[in-house]
Structures are given as C-alpha cells and as structure tokens.
Amino acid sequence: EELxxxxxxxxxxxxxxxxxxxxxxxxxxxxxxxxxSSFNIEPEALQHFxxxxxxxYNNIPFHNFKHxxxxxxxxxxxxxxxxxxxxxxxxxxxxxxxxxxxxDLDHTGYNNAYQVDINARTELALRYNDISPLExxxxxxxxxxxxxxxxxxSASLCFQLHLNHLGVSWPPECILATDMTRHNxxxxxxxSVLPAFDFTNKEHxxxxxxxxxxxxxxxxxxxxxxxxxxxxxxxxxxxxxFFNQSDVEKLxxxxxxxxxxxxxxxxxxxxxxxIRFVLLPLFMELANLFxxxxxxxxxxxxxxxxxxxxxxxxxxxxxxLGCNNISLSASKY
Length: 333
Ligand SMILES: Nc1nc2c(ncn2[C@@H]2O[C@@H]3COP(=O)(O)O[C@H]3[C@H]2O)c(=O)[nH]1
Ligand SMILES: [Zn+2]
Prior knowledge:
Layout: H1 2-6, H2 19-32, H3 35-38, H4 43-55, H5 65-81, H6 90-102, H7 112-115, H8 123-127, H9 133-148, H10 159-165, H11 172-176, H12 183-193, H13 205-220, H14 228-252, H15 267-289, H16 305-320
Helix pairs in contact: 2-4, 2-5, 5-6, 5-13, 6-13, 12-13, 13-15, 15-16
The structure holds cyclic guanosine monophosphate (PCG) and zinc ion.
Cyclic guanosine monophosphate binds at residues 63, 111, 178, 180, 220-221, 223-224, 235, 238, 270-271, 274.
Active site: 63
Family: Belongs to the cyclic nucleotide phosphodiesterase family. PDE9 subfamily.
GO biological process, one term: signal transduction
C-alpha cells in the first residue's frame, strides 16, 4: 500500500527497481486508474501490451525503458496531484498514459538533428520527409504493437479498438508533441487557450488537447523536478547519450551540436539554461491552471554562484510539485 501511494508522487525513485518490477508498477498504475474496469481491458492484454513495449525500447543510455517508466510515472503523479480524474474523461487519461508509455519506442539514441537530410540522412528522415522523424517512428511502432496485442479471449476489446471506437486520434497527437522543435508552438498554444479553460465545458476538446500535450511534455523533461538522488544519475545517462552521438558525428564529419559535445559541455552548463528557460516556464504555465503550492525559494540559496540560479529554479519546481520533504544537498555543488 505504501508503494502504491509512493507511486503517485513525483518523488518516486525509479533506480530501486528492476525492469521486471517496473513492468508490474506500470500495470499497477493502469489498474489504479480503473482502466481495466472502465474499458473492460483484460489484465492479460495489458500485460502483453506492456511486455511488447518493453521489448521495443533499446538498451541505450537515456531513451530506454526506464525513461519510458519515469515519464509515465510523472504523468501518473500529475494526474493525482492535479485531480485530473475528476476533470477529464477516462479516455483522455487512457490516451495520456498510453502515449507516455509509447512516446520513445525504438529510439536509437540519435536525435532528430542527426537523422535529417542535412546530416546523416537516415532512413527514418527519408521516410518521414524530415518531419519529426523520431516521433513519427515512435507512433508507428506504437501502432504495430497495439495491432498485435490481442486479448486472450475475444470478448474484451484491445486498446486500439477502444480508441478507434471512440473516434480519438491517438497516439499521434501526444507523442508528436514531444518533438522539442515544436516546444514554443505548443507552449504558446497552451498560453492562448488558458484564459478560456473550463473543465466543466465538455465542448472544450481543443483546450483539453492542448493541456494533454503540455502534460506529456512536462513529464518527458521532468527529471530535474525529481529529488537530486533520482535526477543526477539521469543527467549522467543523458550526457552519455549526447556524447555518444557527438563522437559519431565527429567521426563521420557531420556538424556537432555544442550541447552534445563532450569538449564543451559540463553538468552545470547543461542544466542551468535548460531548467530556467525550458523546464520552469513549462511548469509555471501548468501552475497557472492548477492551484499547485508555490513556496518562495529564496531562503534556500546555495553558495556557489554557477549553480545558484539553477538550484533556485529547482526549488521552485520542487515546491510546485509539493515535494517539500526533500532535502536538497546544494552543498554537493
Ligand atoms: N540539458 C537537458 N536536456 C534535457 C533534460 N531532460 C530532457 N532534455 C532534453 O529534452 C529533450 C526532450 O526530447 P528528447 O527526448 O528527444 O530529448 C530530450 C533532451 O534533449 C535535462 O535534464 N537536461
Ligand atoms: Zn522521452
């Protein structure tokens, strides 16, 4: 029971769990949101689906099955934190959770900038005409999996049938929204619909879609909103994947993104701008919609200057998520 409750909070520590256990935790989340009963999904079908998802994440430093879990778990935490069960329809929650699970399927560890025509010209970039090649591929793999997942008895519907039946365009919208080149477009759309937001108005489908996109984006880049001991190893994984890519780019004579170059990047330089200018503005917009508690972070200033701003932002983030019980060891930096 304690674990069940813990799973609903953004402080959850993924590093304590093996992949097989993570699969069970994913199942618990889907079950505790009542998807099994609301959509008449057989537990075996869910299990089968999650196993296929697990098989289609690659063994790479960052965009792996554990990242898929963290994004899904943050989405799950946000659903509870913002009481979305009483605000959105079950089908919207199912779409959000399924999108989170599928959002980086078969990621190869090389970002879109590497894939596209002016750089490595990969098969994915050719297939998708340079338009969000990775995210389009994650969607395509998600569809393959969903088509193959058949419940043992034909009596209950599988996910895809449900989603088609309900006329929902899934999964493209939420998964495609995770392409960071669309960050400003999606954030601005959300800002523009915010004043008109009304959860009680069921006609407001496009507003809900804008919110769903923001929620998956927040979840996708939320590692730094987690406790230090969870967030730090994730940063190591991310940098390892960045450095792998830039090493290959150097070998192939391709342009190298400065933020991936092991000769130019260090941890503070990588995080300060990201937290301040990408992560925090996204969370702040969400806080405009939900009455998340906000504590003044000033009392926690850390001594070393380079990290001060990043850590202030981090305290704001953690306050927003209500994780004030975390003791951040700023002195480590
Ligand atoms: N610098 C930095 N970038 C991040 C962090 N978390 C996510 N990102 C970036 O945000 C991107 C989100 O989409 P991707 O998964 O393609 O790749 C991710 C990373 O490039 C982080 O903690 N620090
Ligand atoms: Zn991701």
